[in-house]
Amino acid sequence: MGSFEKAQLFKLIVELGSMVATAKALNISPSAVSKRLAELESELGVQLLKRSTRSIVITEAGEHFYQEVRELGGRWQSLIDETASLGETPSGRLSVAAPAPILNRVLMPMLQGFNTRFPEIKLELLSVDYGDLPLRSADISLARHIEDFDSGAFVGVPLCEYLNGLFAAPDYIERQGMPEKIAELSLHSCLCYGKENKAYKWQLSGKCVEVKGVLVSDNTEVIIQAAVQGMGIAYIPHMIIDRELASGELIPIFNDTRSRPYVMWGYYQQLAYLPGKTRAFIDYFRESW
After folding, report:
1. CA–CA separation, 81 vs 163, rounded Å?
2. What Å distances lie between residue 110 and 26, 102, 117, CA to CA?
3. How distant is the alpha carbon of residue 255 from its chain centre?
4. Residue 77 neighbours by CB under 8 Å, 6+ apart
5. In 3-state terms, the chain is what percent helix, strand and coil (to 5)?
6. Residue-wise over 201-234: b if at least 16 C-beta within 10 A, else e?
7. How far apart are CA 95 and CA 143, in angstroms?
8. What residues contact residue 94 under an 8 Å CB cut-off, 6+ apart?
9. What sign has the CA pseudo-torsion 34, 35, 38, 40?
10. Is 42 helix (H, G, I), strand (E, B) or coil?
11. This model's pTM is above 0.70
12. Phi, psi values for residue 12, rounded to 5°
């Protein structure tokens, strides 16, 4: 048994919780499992598991090795799937990591069309905080441009441009009036994205206005729902509130006024070639956007 197979055996021991359960799963003897684990630890020069008659406890080195092996196993399966389907319809599992607003409001409306075109690709959608992207274990991560991503480990490709605009509920406009100039925003209740209750600066058509948040949140869904409830004016991307605009729950303010362009990016690991399933995803969503 080679090192890779022994590493997979170690992964199974951790996930099943015992060497006896692993032996049953692989239809081999517990002594064979113990021997191969010992060989792996000898090759690595570290103890991966502390064993007793009743339990196993993973060591710090073992935890690190397990996480890496788990990720490697996913990449290995992706390689198998991709190689088997070369020259055929893209297929296999495709894991996509993105902040929740992108998953819920940008990807979900497009998934039915993607699934119809590529029925052999099985999507796994992972909700991940922006600060944790790009995600190493995902096939592709979606986010606004990340300034300091590891360009030695990841490739970043632009997918689409989007703009922020100003939106409010008709009820709010009826009560507070429609602002006629950008400077008047400082007199209105504004819903600000962030973590601190401070003055925020909104950039619109080359002009900057400082606003005070009546509500501040780092959750985009909270900002949208607060706007729908008539609590104030939100400064958010048009592309994520199509439902609210179509239903009339939100209406635009200053139709001809927008932020500077922002860019949605896709990030994937540096590979010798780009898997067909990842290329299919990138091409489809560039076309859709």
Report:
1. 37
2. 41, 11, 11
3. 31
4. 92, 93
5. 45, 25, 30
6. ebebeeeebebbbebbbeebeebbbbbbebbbbb
7. 15
8. 121, 122, 123, 124, 139, 140, 277, 278, 281
9. negative
10. helix
11. no
12. -65, -40
d(CA 133, CA 141): 7
pLDDT in tens, 66-116: 888 887 776 676 666 666 655 567 888 999 999 999 999 999 999 999 999
Cα separation of 252 and 216, whole Å? 20
Q: Give residue 84's pLDDT.
A: 62
Residues 51-79 as b/e (b if ≥16 CB within 10 A, e otherwise) read eeeeebebeeebeebbeebeeeebeeebe
| Token pair for 227 | 């706007």
The full DSSP string for 210-248 is EEEEEEEES-HHHHHHHHHTTS-EEEEEGGG-HHHHHHT
Q: Beta strands of the chain (E only): which ranges?
A: 49-51, 56-58, 92-98, 121-127, 140-144, 154-162, 164-168, 190-193, 199-204, 207-217, 233-237, 251-253, 262-269
Closest to 192 (Cα-Cα) out of 146, 223, 168: 223
HSE, side-chain direction, 13 A CA sphere, residue 100: 6
240 vs 177: CA distance, rounded Å:
25
Mean pLDDT of 116-122: 93
Structure tokens at 72: 């490697």
Type of residue numbered 247: S
> With 0-12 CB in 10 A as exposed, 13-18 as middle and 19+ as buried, what is 88?
exposed
Alpha carbons 166 and 256: distance in angstroms, whole number: 10
